[in-house]
Structure formats: structure tokens, C-alpha cells
Amino acid sequence: MSGGPFVSFLLSAKYITSGQSYLYADPAGTQKVTPIPIDFNHTEDIKSQTHMANVGLEGNVGFMYRKGRHNIFIEGGGNYGFLNIQKGSANGKNNTGAATLAVGYCHWLGK
């Protein structure tokens, strides 16, 4: 078991849209407004709209099978950031969070 606080720092923040679509005047999609599809492929840097750091908690639990110097392990857990990602609330309020899973092998080199 492991757990505790964390501090994270923003490296990059981008808003990415993709695809093409016609625009329609009605919800049923029967009256086209545009004769050709509109391209929605766009990438925008939104780093200035987000906080540069976050703090939160992380916790993990795992199991290890040891056979001599060989070990196989599995660990699962998660984390949650306490601060909102966005500086303003116009686009909602979001926090960071993740579920984690690690599976691995280790070999002890010492005695």
C-alpha cells in the first residue's frame, strides 16, 4: 500500500477538434445551410486559460509474488487533484483524476 499528497505542474494544454459536417437549420437535419461540409479540424493552445499547478492525493494497493530473486507484481490505485483545471468557470469546473494499473516484473540484483 502507498499513498499521500502530490504536486503536479502543467506542461501543455491544447483544445483539439476534428471532423467535417454540414450545418443544418433544423434539429432533424433535413435543411442544409451550407452546400459543402464545414471542416472542424482545429488545434488551439489553451495553456493561458488553465492553472499552472495542482495539488491532490494519490493512493495505491498492490500484490507481489516473489520466487527467489524474481518478482511479479500488480498494483492499482488512483489520484484526485483538488484545484479546478480552468482559471474561470465559463467552460465548467473540472478537476484532474485518474485510475492507475501497473503490472510488472523485477529482479533483485543484490543479495
The biggest sheet, with number of strands, parallel, antiparallel or mixed sense and barrel status, is:
4 strands, antiparallel
Estimate the mean pLDDT confidence: 92
Q: Would you tell me the structural class of the helices and strands?
A: mainly beta
Q: Between the first and last Cα atoms, what is the distance in angstroms?
A: 24 Å
Q: What strand line-up does the widest sheet have?
A: 1-6-7-8
Q: Rg from C-alpha positions?
A: 23 Å
Overall 3D form: elongated
State which percent range the strand residues make up.
Answer: over 45%
Number of self-contained structural domains: 1
Describe this entry's structure for a reader:
0% of the residues lie in helices and 52% in strands. It is mostly beta strands and 111 residues long.
What brief labels describe this structure?
111 residues, four-stranded antiparallel beta sheet, elongated, mainly beta, 8 strands, two-stranded antiparallel ribbon
What is the element layout, followed by pairings?
Layout: E1 2-9, E2 14-17, E3 20-21, E4 38-39, E5 42-45, E6 53-67, E7 70-81, E8 97-107
Antiparallel strand pairs: 1-6, 2-5, 3-4, 6-7, 7-8
Short synopsis of the structure:
This protein has 111 residues and is mainly beta.
